[in-house]
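Thread title: Can someone regenerate the structure for this chain?

I was given the following input by a collaborator and told the matching structure tokens would be attached. They weren't. Posting the sequence so someone can regenerate them.
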Amino acid sequence: MTTCLLCEQPDETGSYLCPGCTKATRVRLEGLPVLYRGLGVLLAPSAAMSQGRGGKGGPPPLPVAEDILDLRGVMVGTLEDWLSAVRQERGMRQQPAARRGVDGRLDAAVEGLLRHMPWITVSWPQAGQFAAEIRDMARSVASTLQPPGAARGQRLGHCPAADPSGVLCGAVLHLAPGEKAVRCEWCGAVYPPYVWAQLKTWIDEDTARGAA
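Best answer:
Regenerated them for you:
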């Protein structure tokens, strides 16, 4: 019996992350590329920036929204740092082939971390810190893309990810109008279209267990 380093609940598997937190971390990782590309539509500065009265000789408007650009940069840098730390811990010296563009770098970092998740879960003492940072990143970006009070859209069921207490999140999931991914407003989990079939399976399984 050990204690999960993310939810701090007893865990019979002896791993650093319990099964619920492991699944939630994988789901969040898989959704980060969708969140990253979603931020791309916010890069153009608001039209309001050019409607005010500017002083003579003032600087021209920024070509992009600097805060969104910074957030995207933090996402890529953080994921690459974690992947580098994992590879170093595992003694992997040969560098993987570089991807073209910042988008490619983010995809490569996410794919690399997903490949290492089995090892992270059972063998890495930093698993809790890693999972917490992925959770916080997903929540932060999701709140930027869909501020509180936005239209909720179609109800899909209850979120199957694990919340910080170590039990199923259970928050109601909605597919908001115009959105290309399902986002949990409570735990920050993101479900892109290619996992919707699996999402339905998880929801159905959790519903069946709850009714048993």
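The first strand starts at residue 2 and ends at 3.
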